[in-house]
Amino acid sequence: MNREEIKKALYAYHWTIKEISRIHAHLATTEFAGVAAGGIESVMPKGNGVGNPLLGEIIRREAKSKRLKRMETQVNFIQSHIVRIEDETLATVADCILDGLTVSEVSRYLNVSRPTAHKYVDDIITEMLKD
Fold it and tell me: Following DSSP, what letter does each residue of 63-85 receive, concatenated?
């Protein structure tokens, strides 16, 4: 991940965790209220232009599954790299950001200016990019 991707993932972390949980729960369900057709009519194309609703749901779930994998990759990256932060101030800022606080809220919490809080976030990203 590059700097901008990491920054975006840091700020989105708190709701991404919730979204991962929600998608897992949704993909675990198999409800579908469609009506099965029988005989030759079930396999013949329909002339009304309306697609198969089950197929549409399968396609939607497949897209959701791909989105889930992207989010899990981002979260795994953040979780595996955030532990590199040893400075207590930066660790505190990282925890605050991951918990969903904005930079303004972090600056008020730490009693520092917003530019200083932004610099802390940049320092966190720099630490996460180190190999």
Answer: HHHHHHHHHHHHHHHHHHHHTT-
Taking alpha carbons only, the member of 5, 10, 19, 1 closest to residue 102 is 10
Average the pLDDT over 61-75 and give the result.
93
Q: What is the DSSP letter of 42?
A: G
Q: Which residue has the tokens 């590199």?
A: 84
17: left (phi over 0), alpha (psi -120 to 50) or beta: alpha
Tokens of 104: 């303004």
How many C-beta atoms surround the C-beta of residue 6 within 10 A?
A: 20
Q: Which domain holds residue 29?
A: 3-129
Q: Give the C-alpha separation, 77 to 58, whole Å.
A: 29
In terms of Cα–Cα distance, which of 121, 88, 128 is closest to 103? 121
Give the total number of structural domains in the chain.
1
Tell me the per-residue pLDDT of 11-66, one tens digit each, with 9 for 90 and over. Answer: 999 999 999 999 988 888 866 555 555 566 555 556 555 567 778 888 888 999 99
